[in-house]
Amino acid sequence: MKASVRISKGVENLFGTRDENIRLLESGLGVHTQLVDNNLEIEGEAENVSRVENILEDYNTLIREGHVFNNGDLNGYLRVVTLDREVSLRALVQSGRQRNFGKKALAPKSVNQRRYLEAIERNDMVFGVGPAGTGKTYLAVAMGVSALINKQVARIILTRPAVEAGERLGFLPGTLQEKVDPYLRPLYDALYDMLDTDRVEKLLERNVIEVAPIAFMRGRTLNDSFIILDEAQNSTPEQMKMILTRQGFNSKMVVNGDITQIDLPNARRSGLIDALDVLKGVEGISFVQFDEKDVVRHALVQRIVKAYERYNETVGAGRQLALKLAEPAAENGNGMPDSSETAPEA
């Protein structure tokens, strides 16, 4: 089937850098396109061509209404609408406008990001698990800021384990807060991106927004709060149980982590992995799994994440095979290994 849609404005934005947006439409929906005199000709199966027509018509409508797509935004929207046929481009963009994230008006840039935001809206506890760059922390902070601005909660609690990422930092000068602040910097960065600097400082001074390591949460009950546990893979099972049981009335909790980047010493079991096993099927808790398709940083980050996954699968399979091929020690007839050949001489 063939069809043609006229693109009167915003042709450059539609195609994107190095035609990445059009290539995304073509690969995601299995069509071929060609621009002829501002008409985008589409060829492919009838259902897919119709889907592309609808996306392009939504794009035209949004441009006529004065919507400006910032750098990379359209590519993120197209990722969602090519994977999820139930959502339209227009509805996706407008849903982003309806959410008040302080200085930001954000919309999900992947199917899983959309599910993540919807899960946070619907559930009191949400686990977001996946690789770096998928927006887990950023979107959780955005939802927390939105809840605070709209007076759904009275405060935001941001916490993460103070675990060194494979380094020994040694003695850190300063007060206790100054010692732990470097570990919490990503949470501060997200806050300052959502709210004006002066407002963030005032909210921090009044403890309306609290940023602290997980150890500071023990013994507390967090009512009327939006609680975010970041880098949860570096919590121990004991710490995870402790923080999950801090949740009070009228509170939401979002737990984020990447189980491929565990920095716990002495090969300790991750509290995040433990919680995923223990809490599976518990009513009121939602789990959202991100993958490399959800990475919203530089395109190279997607390829790096995928390469590590392939490498770990290959090496892991090789190690398991080597263990299976290892011959068991011979027995001496008494059910014990025969050590006669390996015993040292007297």
How is this structure best described in words?
Strand 2 and strand 3 (39-43) form a beta hairpin. The protein is globular, with a radius of gyration of 25 Å. It is of the alpha/beta class. It has helices at 11-15, 20-29, 46-64, 73-83, 89-98, 111-122, 136-149, 176-194, 197-205, 237-244, 271-278, 299-325, and strands spanning 2-6, 32-36, 39-43, 125-129, 155-160, 209-213, 225-229, 252-257, 285-289. The model is unreliable at 164-169, 320-333 and 339-346 (pLDDT under 50). 44% of the residues lie in helices and 14% in strands.
Helix and strand topology:
Blueprint: E1 2-6, H1 11-15, H2 20-29, E2 32-36, E3 39-43, H3 46-64, H4 73-83, H5 89-98, H6 111-122, E4 125-129, H7 136-149, E5 155-160, H8 176-194, H9 197-205, E6 209-213, E7 225-229, H10 237-244, E8 252-257, H11 271-278, E9 285-289, H12 299-325
Parallel strand pairs: 4-8, 4-9, 5-6, 5-7, 7-8
Antiparallel strand pairs: 1-3, 2-3
